[in-house]
Amino acid sequence: xxxxxxxxxxxxxxxxxxxxxxxxxxxxxxxxxxxxxxxxxxxxxxxxxxxxxxxxxxxxxxxxxxxxxxxxxxxxxxxxxxxxxxxxxxxxxxxxxxxxxxxxxxxxxxxxxxxxxxxxxxxxxxxxxxxxxxxxxxxxxxxxxxxxxxxxxxxxxxxxxxxxxxxxxxxxxxxxxxxxxxxxxxxxxxxxxxxxxxxxxxxxxxxxxxxxxxxxxxxxxxxxxxxxxxxxxxxxxxxxxxxxxxxxxxxxxxxxxxxxxxxxxxxxxxxxxxxxxxxxxxxxxxxxxxxxxxxxxxxxxxxxxxxxxxxxxxxxxxxxxxxxxxxxxxxxxxxxxxxxxxxxxxxxxxxxxxxxxxxxxxxxxxxxxxxxxxxxxxxxxxxxxxxxxxxxxxxxxxxxxxxxxxxxxxxxxxxxxxxxxxxxxxxxxxxxxxxxxxxxxxxxxxxxxxxxxxxxxxxxxxxxxxxxxxxxxxxxxxxxxxxxxxxxxxxxxxxxxxxxxxx
Length: 503
Hints:
Elements: E1 5-11, E2 19-23, H1 24-27, E3 31-34, H2 41-54, E4 58-63, H3 67-73, E5 84-87, H4 109-123, H5 130-145, H6 153-159, H7 161-170, H8 174-183, H9 189-207, H10 210-216, H11 225-230, E6 234-238, H12 241-244, H13 246-265, E7 281-286, H14 296-302, E8 308-314, H15 324-331, E9 334-337, H16 342-352, H17 358-362, E10 368-372, E11 374-375, E12 378-379, E13 383-387, H18 399-410, H19 414-426, H20 429-442, H21 478-502
Parallel strand pairs: 3-8, 3-9, 4-6, 4-7, 5-6, 7-8
Antiparallel strand pairs: 1-2, 1-13, 9-10, 10-13, 11-12
Helix pairs in contact: 4-5, 4-13, 5-6, 5-9, 6-7, 14-15, 19-21
């Protein structure tokens, strides 16, 4: 068998089944699968992921349901245990730090800001406005220049004058600096309140949630995406909407995808001579419409030259925006359709006719598919097939080992995170600052991949915590006070749980 192939189906013509798959070079032109729930999409994705893992390939899997992410853990072989990161936000006692604002180069800051705003716009369509977008964009661009900043800084830069001054004084971008110095600073109190209320209200819903705050509020990420991709690692992201909430799932998923996109684009520094030896990274995204902002189109058009290969699946085409839809069908090489509704079938008929028409597509049986397969750089004529049965569960599984490895190597204990965030937001004074320095110096157990590729401890090591802000007067914005109260409540609850466990 050709080891370059990933098998995902078998022909059903004249009852002569022949298994087929797709070559690595053809996968660089991406793969798209659509079909109603229960038709077999998820099993097909799982089979391909397991095949990639067994072949030693690097991949990422974004799962908004969680069941497949957990299932895949059973199929990690012993020889690949050290390659796996299991990112599970619902594991609240061991949050894995992820900071989308960390160490973003000047040329990519607008990409990050656009991606974050895209997901906010998608989540809050009822309150989104041009003014909200304008202010939020300048807030994000300012924070992207400020060392050690996180998304929690959005609240502070809008409400905390001392913090805002520190950020603005650091700015090098003349346009962004002009906004804060010549425009925002001249807002009347009433105008400032009106202009920022919606942003603070909506962003506050995320940052007052301990689950999200403890992930996004750490200044140093524990995963270096570029190094991760170059070394062919496995990233499994469990974004179960039922456990962490739909909006939180969409927010984290979109930001992780943007981070992977930037890591892939950074491969532009690889010489032409070395590019043929660059490892492909296969990114699987189930229900990808949850994470597909308008900026997602640029990933599809640019990913191939950086060896980022996308495998996208969802339920119906209407879920896609008017910008994303043409990007999909204009850039994807392989298309797989399961049974879909009448409206989607009419749209897909353009891709599959004259071999198959809309009536054929709406009547497909479970696990039956129509395929336009990229073969040696050219799209095949559409043909019918069946998906393959699921792999049997291995006799020996290492799920517990993977969970422990991810916690000990990439996560930070909840208590440590909350103390650090509290020091930053509440201002614990000199003792807290000294405690952070001591803790940072003592944490030298193990190593992990961080933003600049250096070794740090499993608890964050050299993650830079900024000097805590000492409030000289009460902050005027209610949302800031609410956030501080939420952090204090969270710390109190953690201590109560800790005391209870000792009894």
